[in-house]
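It would be a great kindness if you could assist me with a short task in structural biology. The full record is reproduced below for your convenience:
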Amino acid sequence: MTEQSASNFLDYCRGLDTEHRVSCRAMYFWNEARAGREMPRLVDVGFVTWPDLRDNMFILATGNGGGRFLIQRTCKALDRLFGADPTGKPLEKVLPAPFDGLARDCCEGAVLSRQPQIDGNLLTLSGGLELRYRMAFLPLSNASEGRVDHLLGAFSFRLG
């Protein structure tokens, strides 16, 4: 897991010419939606404006730091990995181990730091199946006091 400030994350995306990656495209989307504020509000995130990301972006409710990250809006990538619509389920129940713990750590990092978190790696799942993934968790606030009460997630993977 890599903690990035918003400006460093944008530099990372520009510097590596990785704008084709879902995590970097989501960061551009998030940065545009925040419009100079520390983070965007949930109402600022309109998936219609970035239709090419719709299949890979989802919304998590954070429970205001309660440690549970519930899928509030799913995407095709999560549906495909889970095999069904995971809306309303905790993120860690949807993802296979050890990927579940890595995602939870990224979510907690985004809530605590109030900064984007990005992770990508190759994991070997039970049965020897390999999962190559990239994910980003971007903080959102719905409250006037600026609590991180939602996360915008971006997720892509390949099995092989």
Summary: The chain has one domain: 2-159. The mean pLDDT is 81. The helical segments are 6-15, 22-34, 76-82, 91-94, 99-113. The first strand starts at residue 2 and ends at 3.
